[in-house]
Amino acid sequence: MQQLQKYNIVITGGGSGIGAALAEKLGEQGHSVIICGRRKKKLQDVVGAKANISMFQCDVSSEKEVRALSRFIKKRHKYIDVLINNAGLFGAIGRFDRTNSSSWKKTFDINTFGTYLVSKHLLPLLLKSSVKKIINFSGGGAFNSFPNYSAYAVSKAAVVRLSETIAEELVDEGVQVNCIAPGFVATEIHDATLNESKEVAGDHYDLTREKLEKGSVPLEVVVNCVKFLISDKADELTGKTISASFDKWGSDQFQNSIDLINNSDLYTMRRINLVNLDLKNPLRKTL
Fold it and tell me: What is the pTM of this model?
């Protein structure tokens, strides 16, 4: 049996939800994990007595704090192999013109600008690795409209476009950049919805209650998707958004088709053109 390669991994938003689950599971595999987040107590709870998980309190929307994170990591590692940009929040909820403008902007600052800042300032450490993988988290609204959650939807769509762009910019340096669409996972991010009224949150309020009660995407599915993306099975895959619960990333067919996937628009954010419509579609015939 091939021995698992041990990586130096940085996870933002590692104090709760998906980030905390990733830290614990990847730590159990023997990887050296550094988590960061805004809430010190949450980070401490994840670290506990685990020798191979460390923490740094950091608001990813602050360039000063992200620079400090970079210095913290440099004191412990000569390089990092994997960066997982997981920090995010729903932020401003409600019809766009009724949201608080500062809250709306803060959502974008954390979800998108934070992904940019951490990727920018940790890139020099990543380039020293032979692995060089960045995984960003997209979310609801990135590929479809998400009424009453414009801040979240717009910021996550921007994360996808940012990921696709820097994937092209860094391809010659061997850096692979991909997104994960985790689906609806039962984490505390949904407290933001339940703390609002149905009038403010709209249809997503009832949908949230239903999914939390009847079932959602298991954390294990997202964790396993991340494990796949950081493994050598996903080497060369870049510039894509992978659905953890829908795409067949675990299949031999997927893994044997990475070259074809890379050279296609599959799993990317693109406009639908007339040529993409079925030949029998009346719009294609008319226009």
Answer: 0.95
